[in-house]
Amino acid sequence: MRRLAAFALLAVALAWPAGAATLRIGLNEDPDPLDPARGGTFVGRIVFAAVCDKLIDTDAKNEFVPQLATSWEWSPDARALTMKLRDGVRFHDGEPMNAEAVRASIERYRTAPESVRKSELKPVSAVEVVDPHTVRLNLSQPYAPLVAVLADRSGMMMSPKALARLGAKVEDELPCAGPFVLKERVPQDRIVVERFPGYWNAAAIKLDRIVYQPIPNTAVRLVDLKAGQLDMVERLGPADVAQVKADSKLRLVTATALAYDTMSINVANGPQAQTLGHDPRIRAALEAAIDRAALNQVVMDGLFVPSNQFEAPGTRYWNPEHPAPARDIARAKALLKEAGVDRVTFTLLVGNSPVEQQVGQVIQAMANEAGFDVKLQAMEARALIAATQAGNYQAAVVIWSGRPDPDGNVAIWLACDGFLNWGKYCNPTFDDLLAKARGTNDVAQRQALYRKVSDIYLNDRPHLVLYHRRWLWALSDKVSGFSPTPDGLIRPQGMEVAQ
Known about the structure:
499 residues; alpha+beta; D-Maltodextrin-Binding Protein, domain 2; four-stranded antiparallel β-sheet; globular
């Protein structure tokens, strides 16, 4: 299979002019639909970073910076956000990126049946075209996370003309306003994008083409990098760091991540919720069985940060009153006995990469000592997402790449209408606190509210956060200009590959 893929990539390479600068990136998995309205995977965001510019971006300091919008301003009552748009921007189909295009894109995210962006744009009551280069988002209530929302998929603008033509097949062309155009996608094999000559910031683009290859096996990705078949890999396996450091032709780049890995538990989504979902004491017992520090040391070589909250330890919205608890087997067994059970059997879904499977194996061994019989099921990323969305799971370990606003780290999972609320957890008090936190820009008030939010989810345990990540990229010494950021994305601006 790998040999057939290599031949296919060779054919692609031969079709490209000699001397063209091609960057080949090894991805940890294959993205879900390449449509910002429908996408939910981290690797999808990596591809979007090359194809779909956003209204707002974030920088290496996690600050919001202009991209398609040059400035933005809140109204005095915080019920309207006015944005000035960059002049001279064109979509890949040649159509102008103007206020009407922004209105059409945001309206699609707000209302289209296929859109999973509805919940994050719910407070937007109308999108008003002020003039060709000014748009105003009117809100039904103050909504502090909106700027962060527009720095993600909901801020990716698309050609209205192409949207009307493509209908539900947006992912076939992805008609955005980014530096590269989607040219080809072969599921489980490659995604090819080519430089867009009409890009508004063309001077920043030195590459002619990027080829993304999904390779779940971290060891295989590293072998391909060493052999010159790849130029860069994302999410290098922690155990492979030493090999990269020892190779003079490779370079290691790291960054502190917003990302974390969490165990989503099905608490109320269909019959499979009965095992872990019906009694919070069983979920508390499962957490007591897990040694986060040992998990980090055994699987991650101690490079990650053990964590039990959606915000990283020591950061602004982390709750210091709830540090990650130590393992307590006696407590786990007592909780199961209190819940009226001796042993609990459940299936844990994990990704099909070696690292993700090892995480599952360590959890399996730890939980077994406390009275849990854990069956592991390794799945390809898109299949895992499909299973969790349908409620066909009991528990699943997944990654979230993290967001600069705390709402984007917790509401997506646990708000009653959260777009990744696969387990159907719903707590009106919890949602009320989220609404209050969204309604103010005062940092001190938001800190107090999000700490109350953490009080609730750490007691109910619909998710068990396991650890926060450190981004690990490995690059060929031929690659230059890569700027790491806390969100883990690979932005092509400024990147070069020596010929």
